[in-house]
Amino acid sequence: MERIERTALSNLIHNEEYTRKVLPFIKEEYFADRTERLLFSEIYKFVNKYNSLPTKEALSIEINSTKSVNEDEYKKITDVLSTLNKEPINYQWLVDTTEKFCKDRAIIMQYLVVFKYLMVKINNIHKNIFQKCYQVLYQFHLTKRLDMIIY
To answer: Does the CA dihedral 37-38-43-44 come out positive or negative?
Structure first.
C-alpha cells in the first residue's frame, strides 16, 4: 500500500516543479519512519546545496557516508530508494495531499509540544510534592511530633 510519505519522497527526487513548491513546507519531523526521515533529510540538504534534484545514486552515496546510519539502516534505505520510481500522477492532487499531510503533521507536532510541556509541569508538581513530603517526614523523624504533618 502506497503512503503519501513515499509518494512525496519519490516526487521530491523526480519532479522538480513539485519539489520547488512543497520542499519549504515539509519538515523532517513529519516523517514518523526513521528511514523516510533520513531520506528526506538528505534530499533536503542536496536540493539546498546544489539547487537541483538528487539522483538515487547520489542519495545512496550521501547516506552511506553518514556516520549515524548503521549497515541495517543503510540496507533499508537503499531498499526504499529502489522503490522510488517516477510514476505519472495528478500534480494538483499531489500538491493538495502533501499540503494536507503537512498540516496534519504540524498539528500533531503541536500536540506533542503541549504534551511534553504538560509532562514537565506534572513532573515538577510531583517533584515539589515529593520534596514537601520528604521535608515533613524528615522533620517528623527529627522531632517525633505528629502535629508537624498537619499544616
So the answer is: positive
pLDDT tens string 27-45 = 999 998 999 999 999 999 9
Q: Could you tell me the residue ranges of all domains in the chain?
A: 4-148
C-alpha cell at 108: 500533531
Fold of 4-148: DNAb Helicase; Chain A (1.10.860)
Which candidate, 106, 101, 111, places its Cα nearest to that of 5? 101
Torsion from C-alpha of 36, 38, 39, 45, nearest 10 degrees: 140
Rounded Cα–Cα distance for residues 64 and 53 (Å):
18
Which residues neighbour 32 within 8 Å (Cβ) at sequence distance 6 or greater?
5
Buried b (16+ CB within 10 A) or exposed e, 63-100: beeeeebeeeebebbeebbeebeeeeeeeeebeeebee
Per-residue pLDDT tens over the stretch 48-72: 999 999 999 999 999 999 888 889 9
